[in-house]
Amino acid sequence: GPAHLFRLAGKCFSFVESTYKYEFCPFHNVTQHEQTFRWNAYSGILGIWHEWEIDNNTFVGMWMREGDSCETKSRQTKVHLVCGKSNKLAYVSEPSTCVYSLTFETPLVCHPHSLLVYPTLTEALQRKWDEAEQLLYDELITEQGYKKILKEIFEEAGLLKATEKKEVEKQSKKISLEFETVEKCSK
């Protein structure tokens, strides 16, 4: 992601709402602690740093996934980055069961270009993106095909996690290359 946001790594920001204290540690995790005197007050992880959400060449949010289990799934949190005078966790909600939404204010995203994806990519990936733009412009690929290429670029850049299926394919390719010839297999 944007290198200037790495200044936030290793820091944590908290927000108290009614009986809960939320703590957001960028590139690490989000936790929730019940502030009551009950013997079994809840304290847990709402998500661990996972990937960026990208829309229209812009980093629109950070996904913290694989938090504590909640009914049949894991808790997860989307962190929205908005311009603010200081670094602070400004708002927390739970739009759907076990899915949380945090608003994090920071002066690091106030510049209109501060959350652009393209400048964070390597030259090779920028070229791939340029080629995809040209193919779309020349109507040689559809909007859906273009989005698929962008997703692959973002995965290759490490901004998005590859789906489990792709990881399995990668591993099996490595294995299949190991035993490519009879000699290699015999070894």
Automatic annotation (TrEMBL):
Residues 10-112 form the MRH domain. One of its GO terms (cellular component) is extracellular region. Its main location: Golgi. PROSITE patterns: DMAP1_BIND, MRH. Residues 117-187 form the DMAP1-binding domain. Homodimer; disulfide-linked. Hexamer of two alpha (GNPTAB), two beta (GNPTAB) and two gamma (GNPTG) subunits; disulfide-linked. The alpha and/or the beta subunits of the enzyme constitute the catalytic subunits. This is N-acetylglucosamine-1-phosphotransferase subunit gamma. The gene is Gnptg.
